[in-house]
Amino acid sequence: PLPPPLPGVRWEVVSRHGEVLASGVSPARVGRACGYDETLRAPVGGALPAFSRVGRWVDDLPPTSVLPLRLDPDRWLVAVLDPEALRRLLISASAALDRHVYAVDAAGRLIFYSDPVVTSRGDDVRHNPPIRLFTSGGGGEIRFRSVVSGKERLGFVHRAGESGWGVEVSTDVDTRLVA
User: Fold this and answer.
1) What's the pLDDT at 94?
2) Theoretical Cys-Cys bridge with 129: which of 52, 106, 123, 144, CB 3.0 to 4.6 Å?
3) Which stretches of the chain are assigned E, i.e. beta strand?
4) Would you give the DSSP letter of residue 93?
5) pTM to 2 decimals?
């Protein structure tokens, strides 16, 4: 049995050998190799599970990140993120504004970005001032010069609860951020 669906997250149960036992991604994946078994073998450090790097883990999905959670010694519950659905969810209310929205894992590695081209490339955003603020343990409002556009931006960095994620929203300083 899979957990109830969440916006932007599809679930799979995978054997320790990488075989899909149940899938919310596609019923056709059951009995096949998951495609992200290297993530299941990766050493887990710290108290929180770690997201994979952004990659093309699942055929017919855009590049994404997966989060394996150990169910028992023989099975993993894996959250397969749908970056396009997450992007639509986060920016639907602010599509007309010059806003950038990104989510990063605890180490500052990109999970998804409001620009699908950047998400698909899996850019390293750890040098971005809001992400450096997040990875150093900080949060809240930050004013900075974008390393990409050179524009002055105003951002807000938020820690996403126990997930270990950071979410950052920024806009040009001449555009008002709406709470």
Assistant:
1) 47
2) 144
3) 9-15, 20-23, 66-72, 75-81, 99-104, 110-113, 140-145, 152-160, 165-172
4) G
5) 0.55
